[in-house]
Amino acid sequence: MRSDEEHTEKMKKIKSARDRIMEERQGEKGLIVVHTGPGKGKSSSAFGMVIRAIAHEMPCAVVQFIKGGRETGERKLLTTHFSHLCQFHTMGEGFTWETQDRARDIAAAQAGWDKAKELIRDPAIRLVLLDEINIALRNDYLDIAEVCAFLQGEKPEMTHVILTGRNAKPELIEIADLVTEMEVVKHPWRAGIKAQPGIEF
Amino acid sequence: MRSDEEHTEKMKKIKSARDRIMEERQGEKGLIVVHTGPGKGKSSSAFGMVIRAIAHEMPCAVVQFIKGGRETGERKLLTTHFSHLCQFHTMGEGFTWETQDRARDIAAAQAGWDKAKELIRDPAIRLVLLDEINIALRNDYLDIAEVCAFLQGEKPEMTHVILTGRNAKPELIEIADLVTEMEVVKHPWRAGIKAQPGIEF
């Protein structure tokens, strides 16, 4: 263990390095944020960011591209308490392995994307979450080139857009500002524990 | 691109595999959840889970082991709107590289852990978030063996405990049920963009 003097010295160094970095970082801009990878936390941290935005009274919007049959906690809470600050759109049934109807899946994804474009174009909306859109892109229900071109060309300067879902396409990662990969270290499903309220939904 | 028939076939297979897995997973129990790694989303996804729990009307509690000077969106929102369902404790100044006083840091971490034990022991509280506790453990402000023994021995069966912060200790990962590592793929700070409301706080 370090002595108290060494500790103080080390903390001083950390503080001065951090202060210097903070001074250099003056830029502010709307970010293209991607949460991908097989681990948990892609959607929940995106919803955490929506909650932060709401707390700062930044108007925001959510488009859900996959919808299970189950009502999620986040949808219930956002639509019950914060509908004045956060629009919530779940596109039709969404598409999932439950529907098994490709034409309907493509139509649902496209309707979601049309709504997403409308929300992103509105400069009053400061943060738009496109939840599980990576699944639609992965299945080629949406055209990755069109999505990237829109985000680069038409997203207002100060608007944040968060795109979640595993297997994010390389083209999207290329144009994104902030990309996090959630890795599974341990998962309780492997031990026979089912999805539980508060944890998975 | 797959033909529609191939697609339907594939989706059928996914659905039946998934249905089978869901049938097998009947267990329900309180989980020890760890969010670690250098990437973004450790705390925001934990707060997303707190929000889910609140939406399901599960009483919960947050202990913050690091406190910057800045009021965070999540604290503001939880204390303003949901104080009936979620207790929020920030221990003193918390400890950071800002304090540069080891004795005070250890006292703050220990006070946080004492509060954490009291909250976890209360079976009415269904989810307890120990935000950034891994930093206190990493700096040996708290004893990892004591923390692990308490979680294994005294946590009520149905209570979820979430522990966040980079550099989670191997002993903690060993006893956890669900561990996610957030990896940085791209970070805008590297491009000179500062921390922004809705994204980082």
Automatic annotation (TrEMBL), chains A, B:
It is an enzyme of class 2 (transferase). GO terms for molecular function: ATP binding; corrinoid adenosyltransferase activity. GO terms for cellular component: cytoplasm. Pathway: Cofactor biosynthesis; adenosylcobalamin biosynthesis; adenosylcobalamin from cob(II)yrinate a,c-diamide: step 2/7. Keywords: ATP-binding, Cobalamin biosynthesis, Cytoplasm, Nucleotide-binding, Porphyrin biosynthesis, Transferase. It comes from the Bacteria. It is found in: Cytoplasm. One of its GO terms (biological process) is porphyrin-containing compound biosynthetic process. It holds the Pfam family CobA_CobO_BtuR. Its main location: cytoplasm. The keyword Cytoplasm applies. It catalyses: 2 cob(II)yrinate a,c diamide + reduced [electron-transfer flavoprotein] + 2 ATP = 2 adenosylcob(III)yrinate a,c-diamide + 2 triphosphate + oxidized [electron-transfer flavoprotein] + 3 H(+); 2 cob(II)alamin + reduced [electron-transfer flavoprotein] + 2 ATP = 2 adenosylcob(III)alamin + 2 triphosphate + oxidized [electron-transfer flavoprotein] + 3 H(+). Coiled coil: none annotated. The keyword Repeat does not apply. Its EC number is 2.5.1.17. InterPro entries: CblAdoTrfase_CobA (IPR003724), P-loop_NTPase (IPR027417). Belongs to the Cob(I)alamin adenosyltransferase family. PANTHER family: CORRINOID ADENOSYLTRANSFERASE. Required for both de novo synthesis of the corrin ring for the assimilation of exogenous corrinoids. Participates in the adenosylation of a variety of incomplete and complete corrinoids. This is Corrinoid adenosyltransferase. It comes from Paracoccus aminophilus JCM 7686.
